[in-house]
Specification:
The chain is mostly beta strands and about 100 residues long. The protein contains two helices and seven strands. The strands form two sheets. The protein has a five-stranded mixed sheet. It starts with a strand and ends with a strand.
């Protein structure tokens, strides 16, 4: 998953334990197989940007759920603030960081 600088920084330290995505057909297709069953993931790889030599890390995938809104502030001042939506947001639960480049 591609992240901008601010969320990448707090996630890489382990402070940010969730990644949020819009609850859209696109993101559901990344989590579910065509038959409607969940795909089996052990890890999630995060990258800061798109360049070839971008910083990356891998952490455990602990599942996901749907939340109606998001409002979080981290020690760096970075904020995640998504207003309440009927379809909600996909909240991906992250565990231990396994590999840091």
């Amino acid at each position: 998953m591609i992240l901008k600088k601010e969320p990448f920084a707090v996630m890489k330290t382990g402070e940010k334990k969730y990644e949020y995505r819009e609850n859209t057909k696109y993101w559901r297709s990344r989590l579910y197989k065509k038959d409607g069953t969940l795909k089996d993931f052990k890890y999630v790889e995060f990258s800061n940007g798109y360049q070839k030599d971008r910083p990356q890390f891998t952490c455990e995938f602990l599942g996901f759920d749907i939340v109606p809104e998001v409002c979080e502030t981290y020690s760096t001042g970075f904020k995640v603030n998504y207003p309440k939506k009927e379809e909600g947001y996909i909240r991906i639960k992250l565990g231990d960081i396994k590999v840091v480049d």
